[in-house]
Amino acid sequence: MVGGGQELAGTPGQIMVMPAKMNSSANETARHNKTLLAWQLALLRFAVTLADDDKFAVLAAAGEIDRLRPNGGRESDFRFFRRTSAELCASISDPENAGSQILHQFLAQIDDERLKRSFAAAAGYHWPEKPPVSKPTGRNDNLWRGLSPRPLSSNSRA
After folding, report:
1. In terms of DSSP H, where are the helices of the chain?
2. Cα–Cα distance, 78 to 63 (Å, whole number)
3. In a domain, 18, yes or no
4. Domain for residue 16, yes or no?
5. pLDDT digits (tens, 9 = 90+) for 36-70
6. What contacts 17, CB < 8 A, 6 or more positions away?
7. Helix (H) or strand (E) holding 67
8. What's the gap between Cα 149 and its chain centre?
């Protein structure tokens, strides 16, 4: 293939070429998304089993994501996913002492509704109850208080 592009399947007899740079970027994004999903699924598995082996799998996936940092910094510079994973595992293991704020934040960032509901159920997370919307009762007679009365003109309707 000329220029390092990749042939894509099109209609029979038609060849589409994707530039190599776009293909590389798309592959990198797909790899990153798969790695994030693997991390989320590892967290779900840990929430179900609470096994140390599954906790180590979560931390390993987090370490891999941290190594995918775009700035190319040193390995010790970026530990977001490892730190977040440790906090999530602690919150899942001991929800009474760790609090549910970290779980709430994590669940808010999950796009897949099935994964979100599954994780919430496995972790024993209870969604905060929304207060019921109250409808105004009765008539507010003070609504027009303070306004000067206007005389009705013959052109206005009553």
Report:
1. 20-49, 52-67, 80-93, 95-98, 101-108, 113-123
2. 9
3. no
4. no
5. 999 999 999 999 999 999 999 999 999 988 887 66
6. 1, 3, 5, 6, 7, 8
7. helix 52-67
8. 55
Structure tokens, 79: 């530990």
User: Where in the sequence is the domain holding 94, given as residue range(s)?
Assistant: 38-123
Whether this prediction's pTM lies above 0.85 is answered by: no
How many Å apart are CA 76 and CA 83, to the nearest integer? 12
pLDDT for 149 beyond 80:
no
Q: Are 56 and 79 in contact (CB under 8 A)?
A: no
**Contact indicator for 61, 39 with CB cutoff of 8 Å:** yes
Instruction: Please answer whether residues 81 and 35 qualify as being in contact, where contact means their C-beta atoms are separated by less than 8 angstroms.
Output: no
Cβ atoms of 78 and 66 within 8 Å: the answer is yes
In a domain, 107, yes or no: yes
Residue for token digits 């040193």? Answer: 74
Asked if the structure places residue 83 within a domain, the reply is: yes
What digits encode the pLDDT tens for the residues 66-109?
887 665 555 556 789 999 999 999 999 987 776 678 888 999 99
Distance CA 108, CA 95 (A): 17
Query: CA 53, CA 109: separation in Å to the nearest integer?
Result: 25
User: Structurally, how many domains does the chain consist of?
Assistant: 1
Question: In b/e form, how buried is each residue of 55-80, taking b as 16+ CB within 10 angstroms?
Answer: bebbbebbeebbeeeeeeeeeeebee
